[in-house]
Amino acid sequence: MPKDDHYVIVGNGPAGNHAADTLRDEDPEANITIISDEKPLYYYKHRVPAYMVGGCEFEALRIRPYRIYREKSIRLRLGQRVERVVPQERCLYLKHMEKIHYTQLILAVGASGRRLPSHADFSEHLHCLAGFDDAKRVREAMMKSTRIVILGGDLVSMGLAREACKAGKEVVFILYSSLFWPVALKAEIQQNVTERLTALGVEVLVDTEPVTDVQPQEGGYRITLPDGSSLSADLVFSCFGFVPNIRFLLGSGINTEKGVLVDHMMRTNQEGIYACGDCAQIYNPEFKDYWLSVGWGNAETQGVLTAMNLLGGKSVIDYQPKEIFDMDGVTIRTSWWKSFT
User: Fold this and answer.
1) Which of 156, 196, 276, 291 could be cross-linked to 15 through a Cys-Cys bond (beta carbons 3.0 to 4.6 Å apart)?
2) Strand partners of residue 62
3) Domains assigned to the chain
4) Rounded (10°) angle between helices 187-199 and 155-166
5) What is the pTM of this model?
6) Which tens digits make up the pLDDT trace of 154-172?
7) pLDDT in tens, 67-93
8) How far apart are CA 55 and CA 170, in angstroms?
9) In terms of Cα–Cα distance, which of 316, 273, 314, 278 is closest to 297?
């Protein structure tokens, strides 16, 4: 590779960091830049609920200090949002219209909290928990709270319920099996999840329809259930999974659907552009369909594979079922994003 190669990675999570490490190991001379709209250094997202309830400080979340990037000659640009990508010019623009050129680009932008359309009228009263910034905004209120309601769920909501109970909070979990993310819960798994949450001290309500309203009341919020009854809480969390952060790609010519469409080697339809992690929608040649993967381990693996393919490799993503969630012995597995095994 020529020394003036510039590999740009958009995203500072497990996929982006493993891609950067692999690129540096395989190409010691190239320029490597990681750009992220998040300000914190690379951190464990599954520990965010513990931070939010006051169970730990940010240092317990951080995976590596800044000096590691300096030693690897990987440039970090944190707190800077990419506004658009122009494949024809091999460049991208930041929010303040700075233009950055690349020779190869990896999109590892992750995802944000998914909002239900039926909650639009009262979404301002609901909190999501997609990352550190979400947790930081609500941490003070969370530490002062005594009772919370979780609408959902997804994998993050399970961790939130567990950590809130450990912190002495009263937790009500309204579990929607048909809206569980990334796949609807089968009856057996729903029962197991309900039993485990109950064992932790969580009050679990299994409902068929989303709540109809959430409004402020003195000292907190009132949640109206489909049957007309209501309950109160200091805070209400909406945990219905995630939506890939791909809006900035509109008009770029990069094919997207639910995520960034890539082939089985993580390549987009635009030369020199790859995608991996939670934002990637990967083609499965066996099923002749696209799938979204979830889980920290999947993102790490995809980051390494994507970097190797960018450098000329021919590795194909593994389609075997991956463990994505384990809570007190209850395991949820997925083979591709819309099926359950």
Assistant:
1) 276
2) 43
3) 6-39+79-110+245-334 (3.50.50.60), 113-241 (3.50.50.60)
4) 20
5) 0.89
6) 878 988 999 999 999 999 9
7) 999 999 999 999 999 999 999 999 999
8) 16
9) 278
